[in-house]
Amino acid sequence: MEVDNTNEAKYDRKAELQAFDETKAGVKGLVDAGITKVPRIFVQPSKIEDSTIHSDKKFSFPVVDLDGIKEDPIKRKKIVQEVGHASETWGFFQVINHGIPTHVLEEMKDGVIRFFEEDTELKKQWYSRDVSKEFKYNSNFDLFGAPVTNWRDTFSATIAPIPPKPEELPSVCRDILLEYTNRVMELGATLFELLSEAIGLEPNHLKDLGCTEGLLALGHYYPACPQPEITPGTSKHADNDFLTVLLQDDIGGLQVRHQNHWVDVPPVPGALVVNIGDMLQASVTFYLSYHLYYVG
């Protein structure tokens, strides 16, 4: 990686971040402007991220087939075991036959693209860092606090527990966003049942704790980068929610950390990636500790 250090003393990162944010055009705006070099705010300092670990060990990313989960008690028991094992050993798994039609998944991906490839002047009305807004788009929610800026634009929409009004969502993706997230809420309820059973609880235990009440939808957009080797699309992180349900496109690039290796999550047509979030891990750990303390 080559970085020009001749103007080190003149580099004002905060000012450059502010200037970038004020364009309200995001990373897509830089690409549209025809840049050939990544602006310095996006250059990844080597000390921030671990180098990618190429593993010689072959891992098989967990895939859980939910077919027959409501009709066949034997299948359900097997699925519960698979979900429990994947959650404990990986913290991730993919689900297939989850009940959300393929055309809904494809239209949701198209809706994200439609929004981000809309004319910049039309998108600007949605650009905001006001966390109280039901729908907003920006580039890097932590733009002014993170040590490195990701090559990514994002929209976020608070769908539950209080549904947004139609006019609070962009028309180019409104209908599919509501349909997709309603179906994800249904799938989420099923997943929380499975997770409850996997740790020996009643199916409604996590639901009764309120785990299924809220939903925040995020749409990430990664435009083509002129120097992808020096800037991340997404920095390494852990999700701080109860559960993340992720719809991947067919390009790939998603990796998870497993046994000290970065492992590719292969795009599987029709599959959804499930990530056990920090809040759920903390809740389960607390429950098990409490249970062992009083029972054991």
UniProtKB/TrEMBL annotation:
Keyword Secreted assigned: no
MF term (GO), any: 2-oxoglutarate-dependent dioxygenase activity
Transmembrane segments: none
Keywords: Iron, Metal-binding, Oxidoreductase, Vitamin C
InterPro entries attached to this UniProt entry: DIOX_N, IPNS-like_FE2OG_OXY, IPNS-like_sf, Oxoglu/Fe-dep_dioxygenase_dom
Ranges of residues in domain Fe2OG dioxygenase: 211-296
PROSITE patterns in alphabetical order: FE2OG_OXY (PS51471)
Protein name per its UniProtKB record: 1-aminocyclopropane-1-carboxylate oxidase -like protein 1
Source organism phylogeny: Eukaryota, Viridiplantae, Streptophyta, Embryophyta, Tracheophyta
